[in-house]
Amino acid sequence: MTDVIVVEGLTKSYGHVSVLRGVHLRVAAGEVYGLLGPNGAGKSTLIHLLLGFLYPDSGRIRVLGSADLEAQRRQIGYIPERQRYHNYYTPREYLTFLGRFDGMPETILRKRIDELLELTGLTAVANRYLRTLSKGMIQRLGIAQALLTDPDLLLIDEPTSGLDLDGQQELLVLLNDVRQRGHTVLLCTHRLAEVEYLCDRVGILTNGKVALEVNVADVRHMTGSMVVQTGPLDLPLRQRLEMIGREIRCDEQAVVISPHSPELQAKVLQVLIEANVTIRALEPQLSRLAQIYMRTVRGEPVDNLLVTDQAPLRAVLNEAINPAPTDDIDPLLKRLLQRREGDSRQKDGHQ
Ligand SMILES: Nc1ncnc2c1ncn2[C@@H]1O[C@H](COP(=O)(O)OP(=O)(O)OP(=O)(O)O)[C@@H](O)[C@H]1O
After folding, report:
1. Is 19's C-beta closer than 6 angstroms to any atom of ligand 1?
2. Mind telling me which InterPro entries this protein's record contains (predicted)?
3. Does the beta carbon of 47 sit less than 6 angstroms from any atom of ligand 1?
């Protein structure tokens, strides 16, 4: 498969502030790649470089097979973090203006606008002034404008910035519909829920470099640490539990497994059950991706968080006390996953 984005040894400074210090990145055709990084890591700078709005100090960029980034812009849909529009346009007028500016034939343009207004849920407000629309609607208009020319590549910068929980959910569900259409996507964000929900692969941008890349499927739904709330644990039992591995710490009525692995959890539970200790609750803490992200940003090793083979423990696990996989701390991700489960149940029902 060809790479739609190829970035090699990219550096960029603003005056004395060095932001990108040798970024390497490849995004394959059809892939949805999430670039995670803290505020100020240089995510927007990278997008502006890909669009040819900025020039790098050194390094190489190829987008859709070409280094002529200005020429490629028509093939790229860009959804900026902050969108500003002329208040006295309506969504339909604004999209029409853009399409004409781009030289789209009128009949094709009209059809395309109807389709995009429908996709983004803006048909009912197509003829209302933009100043009367909610922030969520404006973000969705941003998606419609980015899709107008049916681009091969979408660059999306912090799509849910400034939206409330409902707005975030609506937008991510829409972006998930968009991803099903097969566009290659680079999504820059610091929100882990967006990456877990939408992306195939994630790169963590920190200290001017992509420090780590992870396949999202390997870490999706996995918790980073687990607290097992128990009845009283006497000292010998606590020592026995801590002998299982250095990931295990006990206090008088709880066992913490960090980083969590289902295998360790099974061993802990087995010891607790054999010792007749009451297990009050299993409380998953940070998601696995959150732990990987935080450690990478702090420059700490993550090797033991990347182990994905869970096969050995399935046999030992007591299903009754196995936590549900959606027990993630992020309420948005939880809502999205519940919605997805509901959708597939509905689909199954129709078949
Ligand atoms: N035009 C500019 N002139 C000087 N410094 C800039 C300029 N644009 C960005 N910066 C600085 O470069 C750094 C990276 O900014 P950038 O906006 O690319 O980061 P980001 O990862 O997108 O951040 P955020 O998540 O906050 O949007 C920041 O320290 C920012 O202040």
Report:
1. yes
2. AAA+_ATPase, ABC_transporter-like_ATP-bd, ABC_transporter-like_CS, P-loop_NTPase
3. no
